Amino acid sequence: MASSGPTSGKKSLNTVTLLFKLPYYTQWGQSLLIAGSEPALGSWNVKQGLSLSPVHQDNELFWCGTVSVAAGFTSEYKYYVVDDNKNVLRWEAGEKRKLVLPEGVQDGDLIEIRDWWQDASEALFLRSSFKNVIFNDTEGVKKELQSVSLNKSLDAEDIVVQFVISCPRLVPGSTVVVIGSNPQLGRWQAQDGLKLSYVGDSLWKANCVLRNQAGNPSLELGPNREANIDLSSPKQSRYVVLSDGALRDAPWRGAGVAVPVFSIRSDEDLGVGEFLDLKLLVDWAVNSGFHLVQLLPINDTSVHGMWWDSYPYSSLSVFALHPLYLRVQALSDAIPADVKEEIQQAKKRLDKKDVDYEASLSTKLSIARKIFNLEKDKVLNSSSFKQFLSENEEWLKPYAAFCFLRDFFETADHSQWGRFSQFSKEKLEKIISEGTLHHDVIRFHYYVQYHLYMQLSEAAAYARKKKVILKGDLPIGVDRNSVDTWVYPTLFRMNTATGAPPDYFDKNGQNWGFPTYNWEEMSKDNYGWWRARLTQMAKYFTAYRIDHILGFFRIWELPDHAATGLVGKFRPSIPLSQEELLSEGLWDFDRMSRPYIRQEILEEKFGSFWTVIAANFLNEYQKQCYEFKEDCNTEKKIIAKLKTSPEKSLWLEKEDNIRRGLFDLLQNTVLIRDQEDPTKFYPRFNLEDTSNFRDLDEHSKNVLRRLYYDYYFARQENLWRKNALKTLPVLLNSSDMLACGEDLGLIPSCVHPVMQELGLIGLRIQRMPSEPNLEFGIPSQYGYMTVCAPSCHDCSTLRAWWEEDEGRRNRFYKTVVGSDEEPPSRCTPEVVHFIVQQHFDAPPMWAIFPLQDLLALKDKYTTRPAPEETINDPTNPKHYWRFRVHVTLESLLEDKDIQATIKDLVTSSGRSFPGKKVEGADESREKLSKVQLNGKA
C-alpha cells in the first residue's frame, strides 16, 4: 500500500548510480553480465545478475551497465560471459572483486567503474605458491588506504579518480606511483606522482582529485594503459574507480627440480627417501637458484603387500600418507639403546643401489611398532594428537579400519570381506571402538599417520620459509581396492579406466586398472570428495600437478571383463545411434558388433591347430561361422580358461600365442554395442585393421571411416569442453595452490583453450612435441603458460635418451644444435649444458628439471649407467619404481661447483631465484623505490 503520510515521496536513503565499463571482445551470441554478493547484482545468481550492453568507443568495444544503489553500497562481484539464455560460458579468473565506493559520494552522483577482465595468467600470482611463498613479504606491508576529504573541497568541475592496481610480485621496499601529465599526477615526474597505498590482497589504491586544465588530458599509464577523462563534459561521471588490472612488467619466470621422495638418498634414511630429507633438498634447491621442488604422489599405496605397491599412482587412500616415508628416528626423543642399534643396522642393510620397497617398509613399520608400544599413551593423549585426530577423523578412521581388515583377511579386495564388504558408519564404529582386542592395531595406524603429518608439515614449513614451492602430484585414479571405493562406492564405476586408446600411449594395449568416476554422482554434493582431496593436499603443498588432465575432459573406459585397451569407449561421449546408422544404410548390427570369426580366419591365425581352438573355445552357429562359448566370451574368461581348462596341456607351450590369437578374434568387430543401451554403438578403435572391416562392402566401409573420424576427432569436442568446465573449476577453487596439468599425448582441440581459460599451466617435453610435423620441440617457441623440461619421470633421462639411438641423436644435433659435425656418442656435460640452457632461456613460466638431468652437468655424477636412472618404464605395467639417486644430499650440498653451475644458468636466463632476506625491510619502505604504472623504474 502506498504511503500518504507527510514523508511520502521522500527517499529514505541517498542513492547513487553505478556505471560499470569493461573492454572485452565476445563472439556472436555471447554477452557479459555481472553477478555479485548483493541483491542489486543478483546475489551470485548469474541469471539475475546485471546484464551489460555493448558500446563501441573509437575502435574498442566496451560492455556497459548501470544500476542504482544506496550511497554506502559495498559488494563482491565478478564478470561472466553468457549465451542468449544466460548460461555461463566462462568467467574471469582471480579473487572476487570488492567494490567500496569512494568517500563523499552524494545523492544522485554517478560513479563510473572501469575494470579490466581478470586474466587467468595474472590471477596465478594470487595463488599460495607466490602469495605465501615467493612474494610473501608483501603481507608485511602496512595496510593503509589513502583517502581524500571530499565533502567541501570539490568544485563543480572536479572529478575524483580512484586508482586501483594489483601488484602481487612487488619486492620488499617497493611502492606504486601513478604519474601523468596532470599536475595532480606529477607532470610525469616520479617524485611528484600520486603514491598508492597497500590495502591487502596485493591491491594498491589511491584517490586523486583531477581539476579541469586547458585541453583534455590523457593519463598514459604504460603500454595500452590510458584513461581518457573529459573533464569539461557536463555528462562526465563525478567519480571514476579505475581498476587497471595487474602491474605490467616482464613476465616472471622461475625454475625447479623434480625428484620422487623415494629416490632421495641421505645419511639418515633407511633405504628410501623420507619426508624430513626434503629439508636438505630444499637447501640444495635454494643454493642452486631454484624456487620449486616437484614430487611424485606420496599417498599410501599398500594394496598388495609387495613391491607392486611401489607404483605411486595407485592410491590405497587419497588422504593417507605413505608409511614408507616415515623417519623412525624422529618418532621419539627417548628411543631405547637396543632400538637405536636396530636402526643403525637397518641403515647399513638397506643402503642399496635401488630401493628395496618391501624390506624398507616392513623394517620401518616393525621399528615404529616398538616405539609405539613404549609411548602410545603419551602421544595419543597429547593435545597435538587429539587436534590431528579431530581434524582428520573423516578419512583417518576408515583408513585405519581398512588397513586392519586388509591384514586380517589378507587381501585389500573388500568384496572378499564378508559382512564388512559393504561399508557403513555403524560397522566402522564397531571396528575402531575401544575395548576390542585389535584396538591397538587401529591406534597404531593413527600414530603413524600423525607422525607422517608432523614430519611432512615440518618439511613444508621449512620450504615456505626458504621461499621454495613444494609441488605435489594429483593422480587421476585410485586403486579399485582402496579405502575410497569401499567408503564411497557410488562415486566410482567399477569399469576400468585408461588414458586413451592403446595406440595413443601404450603399444602393448595394457591399461591402468583404475575404476572410472561417476561424475554425475559426484556432482550431487558439488564434488565434495575432490574438494576434500585438494584441501588435504594444500596442507603440505602450494602447487600441484594434475596427472593426465585429459581425464577431466574424457577417459577411455573399458568394461570390467576387458584385459586390454582395444574394446573401450570414451566416457563421456556421444555414441552412434541405431537411427543414425540406419540413415547411413548400415543395418546388419550383429554382423558389425559381434566377433567376426570364419573358418579361413581360424586357419590363417592358428594353422593346423585351428581345430583344437574351435573345439575348446568356439561354437559353429552356421557353416564355417563361429562364436565364442559362454565360458570364454570375454578377455578375462579366456585368460582364466587357458590356465584352468582340463585341456590346457594341449597348448601349454603356446599359451601366450594362443591368448593373443583368441584376443584378436574377440576384438574382430567394427562396432561396440553399449552395455547399458543396446541401440547405441561406438566405433572400435583402429577398426580398419580388422578382417571384419575388410570383408564389408565399399559403401559400409566409407560410411564407417567417416563415422570413425567424426567420433574420435570431431563430435565430442564441445561435450568434453563442457565436462571439463564442470569439474576442473571445482578443483581449482578448492584451494589456492598453483595448478599445472600434464597434457602430453594426442590432445583434443578443446583442451588447450580450456586450460588457458582456467589458468592451468601445461607441460612441454622436448622429445614429445605437440606439433605433428616436429620430431623435437623448440623451447624458444613454447608459450608462457607452460612448464618446460628435457625429460620427466615417465621417460628415459636426458643421458639415456641421447645415448640409446644414434640416428635420432644425429638428427637432433643437426636440426636443434645446428651442427653438421658428428655428435658425441656419449652425453657429455657440454651436451647437457646446451639442452638445459635451451630450457632455462625459454619463455615458459617454469623450467623444471629431473635431478638426474641436472647432475649430468658434471662428469663426476655420470658413472652410473644411464638406463639405470629411469624412474618409470610406461611399457611395463609391472614396473618396479625403485630408482635411488646414487649420491647423498649431504654430499651434493658440499659440492659448491655444481650448485654454482646451475645457479649461473638460472641467473643468466633471467629467471627468479630465492634471494637473501632484505635487511631492514621495514626501514627501507620509508625510502620507497618507485614502481610506476608506465613501466619505468
Automatic annotation (TrEMBL):
<dbReference type="Pfam" id="PF02446">
    <property type="entry name" value="Glyco_hydro_77"/>
</dbReference>
<dbReference type="InterPro" id="IPR017853">
    <property type="entry name" value="GH"/>
</dbReference>
<keyword id="KW-0963">Cytoplasm</keyword>
<feature type="region of interest" description="Disordered">
    <location>
        <begin position="908"/>
        <end position="937"/>
    </location>
</feature>
<dbReference type="InterPro" id="IPR003385">
    <property type="entry name" value="Glyco_hydro_77"/>
</dbReference>
<protein>
    <recommendedName>
        <fullName>4-alpha-glucanotransferase</fullName>
        <ecNumber>2.4.1.25</ecNumber>
    </recommendedName>
</protein>
<feature type="domain" description="CBM20">
    <location>
        <begin position="10"/>
        <end position="118"/>
    </location>
</feature>
<dbReference type="InterPro" id="IPR013784">
    <property type="entry name" value="Carb-bd-like_fold"/>
</dbReference>
<dbReference type="GO" id="GO:0004134">
    <property type="term" value="F:4-alpha-glucanotransferase activity"/>
</dbReference>
<dbReference type="InterPro" id="IPR013783">
    <property type="entry name" value="Ig-like_fold"/>
</dbReference>
<keyword id="KW-0328">Glycosyltransferase</keyword>
<dbReference type="Pfam" id="PF00686">
    <property type="entry name" value="CBM_20"/>
</dbReference>
<feature type="compositionally biased region" description="Basic and acidic residues">
    <location>
        <begin position="916"/>
        <end position="929"/>
    </location>
</feature>
<feature type="domain" description="CBM20">
    <location>
        <begin position="153"/>
        <end position="286"/>
    </location>
</feature>
<dbReference type="InterPro" id="IPR034840">
    <property type="entry name" value="CBM20_DPE2_1"/>
</dbReference>
<dbReference type="InterPro" id="IPR002044">
    <property type="entry name" value="CBM20"/>
</dbReference>
<keyword id="KW-0119">Carbohydrate metabolism</keyword>
<comment type="similarity">
    <text>Belongs to the disproportionating enzyme family.</text>
</comment>
<keyword id="KW-0808">Transferase</keyword>
<dbReference type="GO" id="GO:0005737">
    <property type="term" value="C:cytoplasm"/>
</dbReference>
